[in-house]
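REQUEST FORM: STRUCTURE PREDICTION
Request ID: SP-0412
Submitted by: Lab K.M.
Chain count: 1
Length (residues): 364
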Amino acid sequence: MPFYHDLKSYRNDAGYADKSDWIARRLLTLRYDLQQAIIKQRRPNSLIVGSWNIRAFDGGLPRLDESFHYIAEIMAAFDICAVQELRDDMTAIKRLQRLLGPNWDYFVTDVGNHEGANFERMGFFYNRDKVIFRNVIGEIVIDSDTLRSGRQIARTPFFAAFQSHWFRFTLCSSHIIFGDDLGARAEEIAAITKALVKRAKREDQVFIFLGDMNIESRDDVVWQALLNSGMQVPEFAATNMQGDKYYDQISYTVDGAATRKTRLLRHGVFDWRNAVYGPAQPRDHDAPDDPALVERLSDATQLAHYEPIVQSHRQRHGKQPFRDFTRSYNTHFMTHEMSDHLPIWIELEIDYSDDYLARFLSAN
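STATUS: Completed
RESULT:
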């Protein structure tokens, strides 16, 4: 569970009336949605792996205090999370870890400053009560003739080895190149998955490939490259704000030397917009009634609340106020506070003790 101590200090924020009250109410609603979507149905002895492209975390204008709380609350629903689009300044990363609590740790790559790297980091945040880091990290480097360009993968894929109970695994996080050339995206995915599948054949562990793969359609060559990889590919709903792009994916090896195979229990996309910031999204008709402490807000209420706060925040940091806050709310403000991507997750079985004990049974 994340830390909430900072809410005490927000009571004295002269530029944000009832700041602690507002954040606490939003957190209660967000916690309820996470409980319903992920936590409530979690099985004992399982592992939840997440992936989230958190837009420009944190580049340019600093996020509002509350956004850190919301991001930490979502991440705490996972046991380990790969994060893309981390930026040069480590301040935001350290604050997120502090809010997650002392049982959480992280490590990140250096900033990529070569062509196509976009000055980004990638990182892993993990709960040490659930996951052990096996002290192996690395990057995938390819032969010079693998891609048509003759270059390396634009944002070098980052991997690290972990263990949870009986389950040994390596996560490989990636942010696939963007641009008009879909073939270049497909080439990067093919190169990465080929390297992971090859390693899986000789190493007793499961390789999980996850991140922002910039897959726009299930009909394009980029999606097909992932399907053709030989890895298991669960189907996720769209992860962009418009609900029509399949940018973020998680896949994993199923064949090879691993003696404990991956068993997928559940997977999904978590949409936070009915709890924080909005805009409000359609809800299932059969969803249970909200309990007393859960509060849904209209888009008009959110807009009226944030407009003076955001304009003051921008001026305080030397930025001009939005000319049209209503227009900028969903396209700029909200996506830079949370993200323009929704997080995805998988739940895996990690207790193979029955299978292990069965090896010692005598045949009748």
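NOTES: The two ends are 48 Å apart (CA to CA).
Reviewed by: T.R.
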